[in-house]
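User: Predict the structure for this protein chain, please.
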Amino acid sequence: MSLHIPFDNSYARLPDRFFTRMSPVPVREPHLIAFNTPLAAELGITPGDEASMARIFAGNEIPVGAEPLAQAYAGHQFGGFSPQLGDGRANLLGEALHDGRRVDIQLKGSGPTPYSRMGDGRAWMGPVLREYVVSEAMHALGVPTSRALAAVSTGETVYREPGGLPGAILTRVASSHIRVGTFQYFAARRDLDALKALYAHVVDRHYPDATDPVDLLSRVIDRQARLVAQWMSVGFIHGVMNTDNTTLSGETIDYGPCAFLDTYHPDTVFSSIDMRGRYAFSNQPNVIVWNMAQLATAMVPLMTDEDEAVEKFTKAVHAMPELTHHYWRQAFGRKIGLSAISEADETLITDLLNNMAHGQADFTNTFRALSDGKPRDQFTDPALFDDWEPDWRTRLEQEDDPLATMRAANPVLIPRNHRVEEMIDAAVAGDFAPFARLNLALSQPFVDDPDTSDLRHPPAPDEVVHQTFCGT
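Assistant: Here is the predicted structure, written as structure tokens:
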């Protein structure tokens, strides 16, 4: 039986300057590592035999109905503008349309494109399996995200360090791959016709109720504000919040040097390329405002009155910090058991976080222990928790079921950085059992399962991951 994807490719019907039509570059010896059967069922995708799926998800065989292409876009990378980026190692096979839901099906690591900028267009196995595990974990945590449909090994060597590493390709599913940088691409070229076509496409695809560019911007801002607050609430650090990695759909995308907090500190940075901490954990709410300002700038030509556009867009962007903080306050309020939180309650949250930083407390385990354990034991100095606890207990008396609120907001499991690295090391050596086990455990992150208790432990001193790396 052959794999069937219900393709209906709206992006491919846009003008040709939006992309380059091209097929993925075949690989030598594809083997299927993983196929996400539940996600496939949601999307109306009928699986085929393992060999044919390996060929399709490696790019060696083009499925019926696909119209493969590489998308063009621009972007600010660490604050510096690049007028042409694009899919340098990805290929959009097309869009699956099922029960009114439309998603992109994209191969990542599928070979060079005209946008590769001297790169080989390939990915090695580590980043492919990292994105598979982390994106699926984020979905299970309730965070809007791209998802992983399949992973294949290529039978080829990718040279990222001496000796080379095994190659792999990820099949990624997203509501779309339209980015802030997509608008920037056409704005930089002063291509008003393309901007209008892109605007109409985004409205039709993601925001059918948007009435004009100002309304669209406000809706994108709302989704991004909510998204970043959700990142913060699970201790997630994206690591490379460039405008080409910021989607119009409001989904998390591009899990390059991403990581999760172990010991809490607001200024934590993992990404090896983030030399100045631009994308540090605590700076993510500021960066997303900057990114939305770049989107607003790119959309100004869509308005007939430029002065009016600047005024209205500026107002929307300037309102974003408080909006993000509102969502942050609500998310962290639930983490300490408050179903409804006021500004007056915020001191409880900030005092706890400050004490956690001073007491070197584990982020995930401390919050979970508020309902299920002994939170004071998470602190190097338990008195830091003891000082905070009485006011918190008094506030909880006003809540109907604070334990249920906390258990629904605080996961038992996250993709611990050292566990992800262990999984990658095992896979490179040919053992995919840790990958399968980690992926299965993280599909139920709020369940306290004794069989996976080892996965909730913070790293030992010799297991601490200090840096994460892009997969390019």
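The chain has a mean pLDDT of 96.
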